[in-house]
What does this fold into?
Amino acid sequence: PAQASRSIFAAIHSGHLLRSCHMTRRVAALVTTCCLFALQVSKPHAIDGTCLEEAIPKGERRDILVDGLELPLGIWKFEWDSAELITAIFDVLVSEVLGFNTVLSGSSDACEFGIIAVSRCSLESTGTSPTPDCTNIKQIMSTHVALEFWDSTIFNDRWFVSNHPKEAPENMGSVGYHGSEGVFIGKRPVQAASDMLGAHLDFYGWYDASWFDPSAFFATPADIPNSMLMPCSESLIGNALAIQNVRTWTPDPEGFDESGRAKCHDGYWWRSPACRANTSSCVPFVSGGNGWILDQIMPKAIAFRMSIAVATAVNWSAYVALPTEHDTLFYSWKPALHFIGMGPKEIMFEQHDDVAWAHGDKRTSSKTVELHKVVFTGLKFAAHSAYYFLKEMTIPMQTMEELLKGMLRPGASYADIACEWVRDHREVWQSWVPLETMCSNGHGLVDFGGSFVTDRSTATSCSPCPAGSLSVPVTDALGDTFSCLECPPGSSQKMWGQDFCSPCEAGQHQNASGRVACLRCPQGRHQSERGSQECEICAPPRTTNFLGATSEQECLCPVDSFGSEDGTCDPCPFGFTCALGSSMQNLNRALDHGTDVATEPFPVLAPGLYTTQEQPLSAYKCSRQVSCPGGVPGTCSGGLVGLTCTHCPASHFLQNGECRDCSESHAGLVLALTASGMSGLALVSHMLVNVPPSRASGHVVVGGMMAGLVVNFVLTISIVGTLNVIWTNPLVDFFEPLHVLSFDIERFQLSCTIPDASFTTDYIMKLLAYPIVASSLLLSIGLLQFFPCARKGIPCSVSAIINSLGFVLSLAFIAVGLLSLQGFRCTESPNGRSTLSADSSVICWEAGEHRQVVMLGIVAVLVYPITFLALTFVACFFYASLSALYGIRFTACVRFLVVRVRPDLLIFAFLGQLKNFLISLLPTLTSNYHIQVCLMLIVLLLWSFLQLWFKFWRSHLINIVDAYMNFVTIIMLVGFALLSSEQRNMDKALVGWLTISLFLAATTASIVLVVCKMLSACHPSSGYSIFISHHKAAAAVYARHLKLVFQDQGCSRPFLDVDELDTLDNLSFAVKASRSVLVVLTDQIMERPWCAVEITSAWLNKKPMMAVDINSRKVDLSANYLQDVIKSFSAQDLAIFLALGIDEVAVRSAFDHVASLDRITIPLNSTGLRLPDAVVRHCLGEHFDKCKPSSSALDPEKTVYIIFNTKDDLQCSVASVLCHLFRQSRWNTIACRRDVAISQTTFHAGKNLAVVVLISKDLPIDPFGMRTIAAVARVALPVVTVLSQETFSKPSQEQLDMLKGGSAFMPDDFALIEEVVPGVTNMEFVEALQPLYMILAWTFRPEQNEKLMQVEFQVIEERVEKKLNDQTRASGPTAGVAPSASSNSVTSAAQTISTAGGMLPKVAASEDMEPWRSV
It folds into this structure.
């Protein structure tokens, strides 16, 4: 009986029995109640309070051990139906099958309470917004398991792992089903719509009012009493902030008031635009709470033209009752119980888009939520069988829905339904029960005899691991368990039940496994490492005098080969040759009495090293090997003296490795010429770098930037000459002149100018080089101010001087950085001491002269590279805020930085200086030459990657030159590395000459480019004839139209920014390179910062400017409006201006100048392919006479007629652009303009004529376009459709009704129509229009780049030519005969076109047809 009742109940619930017997709902309810009663009566009852007959008795159940406390397994219950059911199932199985005591530790209707309960964090708040307090750890863990945790909450397990990993709970994975929420529909209307019309009302597309009306299957909003609804003012519909994203992503001006609140009919219903005019066609949607997911359904209804009215139930009872009593759409979630009797289906929308939802765009479906099992992190050890049971436990969604349906039975409880499922599905949950051999940590598998095994197949149970072993995890086909293994050699364990082995301490070892202790090292051995299997043997003849030696220092050696003065035997020092029996006493005897007397062996010094007689074993490395012959300590060659044979005696200077008398020196002349040249270069640089970018020539700026790259390249190569390697010819002569660039004043022979000068004095002179250059620059600027002819061209402001000094420092920054770090750059000697690389007579890091050098170096590093880098960092990172704060005073100071890189990548101006500093720093970090070269390669490769990836230089040419320079530098570094290698079969001289040739070629090519760029600034012919300044969003199509008109009328090189991609970041340079500027006045053009840059640059450079209005639009340029525009510019906008040397005063003056110009109106919507000469002369000014209109011959065999909406200005301009492009391809063009006269003979079928139709939404109600479409349809001309400036949309039903009823056109329009298509009927318009929307429309976007536009046009042209050729082949000998203009002419023409192939599709001429439903 129970099984039969369940079958009857399932049949009734599914609806099959109701449909077969045609019962009413009341009869169905009565039968359902009877069946449920039968089920309740037949349900087996629990025995002794348990569910299963084989249940483990309560007295035999056990607690779990948590932190030393025995506690029942605590289960947290979430208070919704599905969670109640799965928790009840788990409770039955874990207590009655696994034998654990369980307790309900708490419950909540929010997931946050449950996950905090299973974590070790305390609950900070018990209100509606719980927060974990992980600073207060729970003393007793009473909750251990929580099921059906919704992962969409803020405090999920990932939050705990990221913020408090030690207190985090463990996520055991999915419960087997997912959670979701959305718009649902009852089963009855879905089935009815499917049976009647084959419609699928569970898909959102069937609610699109443009082609389907679903209201017949639903109640109307009027059927629902207002008493059950919440007023809009109290729900989220009336909350402007809650539906802000709705207004942002799906604008609906008629659906919201000025305050942003939705407009509601009768104060209860908000209607979508699709049914706002006809409220009876609205499908009601009922939400609960205060308006759940209204911010999701409203944008969907607007975006997808859904006929939906939205309201909120007044309370929960009304929310549950309304969808049950009325056929409506309603909000719900899965899994849920309250609507499950209706067989609800979720309406499918487009797949969820995470990115769109993150920005507030909720037009896609909501995200499916993972439902997880979470446990406290120690459950695996406290109750491993419950842990593994829960890990396997999963319930599918179908099973959960069946469990929820069981709750519909009268008197059913969660425990009853759970128990019933457990009894009926043993085969399911028995697979969840873990095996007896599933051991926990600290235990291992044992067989029947109690022996430990590693394979589960021979194991019968688990046992604690003994001393000398550890517990390790094992995974096999049955799951995870643990086995006991012996401790490996080098470790031990003295305790039972451990999962680790302790490594042997220092001085101990163990070479056997499974030991409880380690052994001490025997005598003569030592061990300093932990976890060792053997002890190290002391180097012979050394030994130890005790057990357990922990270091090699405890190994002692007797006086043997080299006896030191303290009686120990030390190894022979590096750089010395020690014979058997050498000793320090023998060496001292040789120094005191000579080598003839000293017959005993002693350490002998090798060539290239130097030692003093006071410290004969302390060897220093010489910078020049030939200067130190070795042998006897204190020996030098070439007349050199001092430590490491570095200096010449007084009144001598060093040249080619030998000391020469100062009488042969020319130091004074060299210094004078050098100082004069540096002052002149600094003054020229000052003049060039202080020209504002808005007035500067682009060629000069690019040339100057390339010159800077050349200097940087040469300085980088000069660094290589100072690395720690001994060069040979020809590189010795190559690096010699480059040392001058790195402030090597020894090349100026200053030892003759400043006698007895120490290295400190030389270093001070080097550090003063930059202040001397700066002082000479200031002196030169001051002196030139007394000459009126020079005063005007030489800026003398503080900002200009700072900019010039910064430019000079940035140009020589590598050399300045290298100089500043010179005091820290040391070379290590064999004795462990280091000498200064610049002067090896100075010992590093010891008292004396190096201390002074280091102090000077610290000051130099802080004053030069660190300060400059810090200022550069601040200027680049805070450029916008500092520009807004200090204006052009700040931007003029840092112009040398920002003029070189793109405005959005100013950071690379700082990174470039940082790269230069790193190049100068690398030789200081290590004295190993190969490491130095490798580090330089890494820096250059990283810089090259960044440069090629970001292309941060302002000019494309500079990016190419910089990449080329970096490549050459890397190749040269590889060559230098080869020259220092030990390969004997390499011709190092040849490699050296190849490297030098590469350097000279790269430098020469770069200098030639610099000269060419500078000379290009003197040839204005390379510029543009006219610069078209426009607001892209409002006038991009008009600007393209104007450019084509200018080109057609002979204007060479009009500038349009979208076509000149290489100059978009240098608009001010393009303005300067243009003869005149045309300002296309549209709304907001003055408010766009880059348009303001173009206009102001033209005004500053005194370029002729013209202002034009497009069509009939007049733009306001009043003084008040312009003042408001100036005030509206943001800090970022002002930063753009200031970076180009433009201030607010200049912008306002330029705007006033534009406002004062004589404006003309260019009617692009009614102009043909040419503008009147007076208009072109106004735009081009004096350059009009130089224009030579194009005169290419047109092909008489190719004609194209362009049909478009003549009422739409944009469509008019697009049509004109197409005309120009067709004429450039030698096509004859005709456009359906209002000023172009046509007749019925224009479209003769025998002509070589093709038609291009611009599809737009208002084309069906344009008389000029429609008369042409009807004429084309009559004669069966080939047609190509094009889509531009609009999205594809079919004619609305209203437009079709107007065409059928004859109200689409004005009375005066019919006379114009009769001239072309006499006798035309209203239905003929509809039938002629329909086939156009069945042809694939080709996209055409004239506002994009010219090359991309040409690609799109070529596709259109190819299609037009193909259609024309197909027509010619299909017409045959009957070509030229026009069909009659009868009422059925459209049908005949359509049939003819269809058989011709590739023409207009065939249509039927029936007055009752519904042409658009199929479309």
